[in-house]
């Protein structure tokens, strides 16, 4: 566990790797990287009302999934949203 991870400066290789992933996902889904980044921002805004979202490790992708009835492929948004604390909501 890194106690001072917020002081850690990201290496350019790590940044380039993340950018390449976004580019590949957007290319496969035939949508812009701006759209995927907008989806990420919206997901974080909504879920932040209920939990402390780990924004650094959030992953959003658009994949092709076959329809169960027709077998045709349709785009689907897949999100992996790690969170730090879920006790943000007052019940």
Topology of this structure?
Elements: H1 12-29, H2 33-47, E1 52-53, E2 59-66, E3 73-80, E4 83-85
Antiparallel strand pairs: 1-4, 2-3
Helix pairs in contact: 1-2
Question: Could you provide a short overview of the structure?
Answer:
This protein has 91 residues and is an alpha+beta fold. The protein has helices at residues 12-29, 33-47, and strands spanning 52-53, 59-66, 73-80, 83-85. The model has no long low-confidence stretch (mean pLDDT 77).
- The termini sit apart by 31 Å
Number of strands: 4
Largest sheet: 2 strands, antiparallel
The ordered H/E elements are HHEEEE
**Principal-axes shape call:** flat
The number of helical segments is 2
Strand proportion, as a percent range, falls in 15-25%
Radius of gyration: 16 Å
Strand line-up in the sheet with most strands: 1-4
Textual characterization of the structure:
The chain is of the alpha+beta class. The protein has one domain (12-85). The chain has helices at residues 12-29, 33-47, and strands at 52-53, 59-66, 73-80, 83-85. Strands 1-4 form a two-stranded antiparallel sheet. A hairpin with a 6-residue loop joins strand 2 (59-66) and strand 3 (73-80). The radius of gyration is 16 Å and the shape is flat.
């Amino acid at each position: 566990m890194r106690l001072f991870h917020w002081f850690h400066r990201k290496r350019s290789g790590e940044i380039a790797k993340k950018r390449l992933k976004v580019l590949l996902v957007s290319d496969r889904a035939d949508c812009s990287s701006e759209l995927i980044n907008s989806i990420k921002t919206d997901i974080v805004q909504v879920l932040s009302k209920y939990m402390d979202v780990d924004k650094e490790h959030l992953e959003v992708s658009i994949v092709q999934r076959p329809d169960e009835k027709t077998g045709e492929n349709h785009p689907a948004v897949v999100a992996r949203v790690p969170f730090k604390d879920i006790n943000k909501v007052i019940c």
